[in-house]
Write a structure and sequence with these properties.
Length: 143
């Protein structure tokens, strides 16, 4: 009996296309099935989302009848814990300022480290030059 090779090699471009499709981000699809049960949807029209999320969490905590399952914040599904962390995170402007400060401090540190060798060399040469002048003066007075 002849052995049959059951393994078929698939072209690499097909596998790559499937992998790329799996890793692509897709916006959340229709949420109508969630509305078929007793569900409350809250939507904020504010430009800043962080205060609205924080207010939603406060209302859910105060009310014993609302059980928060999660939320859709900036096209991402989040658990209540993730929403809590998101509401406590700084705004985008503050985060950019912090990042700029961190980058600026590391740049100034690098600049000072690069300049330190040149400054040490200049100081040593200056002291050496002063030392020669002093020894020359001593030699002149002795002669």
């Amino acid at each position: 009996m002849k052995a049959v090779n059951t393994r078929m090699k698939k072209p690499m471009h097909i596998m790559r296309a499937k992998l790329m499709k799996l890793t692509e981000y897709e916006k959340p699809k229709d949420m109508r099935p969630m509305a078929e049960t007793c569900t409350v949807f809250l939507r904020s029209l504010e430009a800043k989302i962080e205060p609205a999320v924080l207010e939603l969490l406060k209302v859910a905590k105060r009310s014993g009848r609302i059980h928060l399952l999660g939320g859709l914040v900036e096209d991402r599904f989040m658990s209540p814990k993730q929403m809590q962390e998101y509401s406590l995170s700084p705004s985008l402007e503050v985060a950019r300022g912090q990042l700029a400060g961190i980058l600026n401090s590391s740049l100034s540190r690098t600049h000072s480290l690069l300049q330190s060798n040149q400054q040490n060399l200049a100081t040593n040469l200056e002291q050496l030059a002063k030392g020669k002048v002093n020894t020359d003066n001593k030699e002149e007075t002795e002669v």
